């Protein structure tokens, strides 16, 4: 996006993305870092896929609810992180890698904080599910939105100037400014 309006719009997108990102992370912290009163607390689950296998052994509804909740908890970060970054022209694989890594670090941070809260445990499967959710949201939304924004920007630049009567206006020209001879510039003399 070029021009003052394009820069303003990009700035607004970045600010909106950052505000929504902070709001979502505050919601996630509020949702997951509340103490719970339970008669006992099981040990931390550090074996990958153990909790997912246990959820799949339950009824289909419980498995969908548990696994889907893990996928959806941080999934908005897959869209909000690139939005806060504000890049329209980015390599898709690099963008996915940056977003997935940032999502994994956020999921790990939430899991580590969660292990310090009464009644909550550390679960490596929640980190895996949260990271996959971030990556899926990124793959499903961000490339399409970036393509649409690039097309809109290209359409705005390619529109020819039109006069009121419908004819194309002449292209404006900028007069060239001559370059001073090197000898005048280096000697410091003025004529």
UniProtKB/TrEMBL annotation:
Q: Does the keyword Transmembrane apply?
A: yes
Domain VanZ-like per the UniProt entry, residue ranges: 22-141
Q: Where is the composition biased (Basic and acidic residues)?
A: 155-166
Short name of one Pfam family for this protein?
VanZ
Write out the ranges of the annotated region (Disordered).
153-191
Tell me which positions the record assigns to the signal sequence: none
TM spans (from-to) = 12-33, 63-84, 96-115, 127-145
User: What's in the keyword line of the UniProt record?
Assistant: Membrane, Transmembrane, Transmembrane helix
Q: What is this protein identified as?
A: VanZ family protein
What organism is this sequence from?
Answer: Streptomyces yatensis
């Amino acid at each position: 996006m070029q021009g003052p309006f394009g820069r303003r719009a990009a700035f607004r997108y970045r600010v909106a993305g950052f505000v929504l990102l902070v709001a979502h992370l505050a919601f996630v912290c509020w949702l997951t870092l509340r103490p719970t009163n339970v008669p006992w607390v099981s040990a931390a689950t550090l074996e990958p896929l153990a909790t997912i296998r246990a959820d799949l052994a339950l009824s289909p509804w419980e498995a969908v609810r548990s696994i889907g909740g893990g996928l959806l908890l941080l999934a908005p970060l897959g869209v909000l992180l690139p939005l806060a970054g504000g890049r329209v022209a980015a390599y898709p694989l690099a963008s996915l890698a940056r977003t997935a890594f940032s999502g994994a670090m956020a999921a790990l941070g939430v899991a580590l904080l969660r292990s310090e809260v009464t009644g909550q445990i550390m679960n490596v499967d929640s980190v895996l599910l949260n990271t996959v959710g971030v990556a899926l949201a990124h793959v499903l939304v961000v490339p399409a939105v970036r393509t649409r924004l690039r097309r809109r920007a290209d359409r705005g630049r390619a529109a020819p100037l039109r006069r009121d009567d419908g004819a194309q206006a002449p292209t404006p020209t900028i007069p060239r400014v001559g370059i001073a001879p090197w000898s005048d510039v280096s000697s410091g003399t003025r004529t």
